[in-house]
TrEMBL record:
EC number: 1.97.1.-
Catalysed conversion reaction: glycyl-[protein] + reduced [flavodoxin] + S-adenosyl-L-methionine = glycin-2-yl radical-[protein] + semiquinone [flavodoxin] + 5'-deoxyadenosine + L-methionine + H(+)
Protein name in the entry: Anaerobic ribonucleoside-triphosphate reductase-activating protein
Molecular function via GO: 4 iron, 4 sulfur cluster binding; [formate-C-acetyltransferase]-activating enzyme activity; metal ion binding; ribonucleoside-diphosphate reductase activity, thioredoxin disulfide as acceptor
Source species of the chain: Amphibacillus marinus
Lineage: Bacteria, Bacillati, Bacillota, Bacilli, Bacillales
Length: 157
């Protein structure tokens, strides 16, 4: 899979101290994106699932954030990374330009990746709705979704 960077000790990419994996590739091309170099899937370095997991686990104090780009652009491989990190008890946040509803509709690897995530920050960044006062998101259309609460409710209906 293509990885731009793995950053340890972040306090701005989710609650608590986090290791952030920035994946390459994004289909959304949001105007005003803070990381446009992540759009191109050819950017970054090729890493195996084992390499990514080992690097994340090298800092045992941190929880995990999947970012990019869009981690769902490489959903199959990122789902395996998330599965292994969840097996180590990691709390996992994911950022995506898709909405939760779009991911659920896409199904397959997208839903598998969601199943390992605790929190999803969804929706494209919209420059006209930029709001620096918001925690963990850049524009007011984006949602911070605790997936356990939402997915349990959707299973009841």
């Amino acid at each position: 899979m293509r990885v731009l960077n793995i950053l340890h000790d972040s306090v701005v990419d989710g609650e608590g101290l986090r290791t952030v994996i920035f994946f390459a590739g994004c289909p959304h091309f949001c105007k005003g994106c803070h990381n446009p170099e992540s759009w191109n899937i050819r950017n970054g370095s090729e890493m195996t699932v084992d390499e990514v997991v080992a690097e994340v686990l090298s800092n045992p104090l941190c929880e995990v954030t999947l970012s990019g780009g869009d981690p769902f652009f490489q959903a199959s491989e990122v789902a395996e990374v998330a599965r292994r990190l969840k097996a180590h008890g990691k709390n996992i946040w994911a950022y995506t330009g898709y909405t939760l509803e779009q991911l659920l509709e896409l199904g397959g690897d997208y839903v598998e990746l969601l199943s390992y995530c605790d929190v999803l920050v969804d929706g494209p960044f919209i420059l006209a709705e930029r709001d620096l006062s918001l925690d963990f998101r850049g524009s007011s259309n984006q949602r911070v979704i605790k997936l356990a609460e939402v997915l349990v409710k959707s299973e009841r209906t």
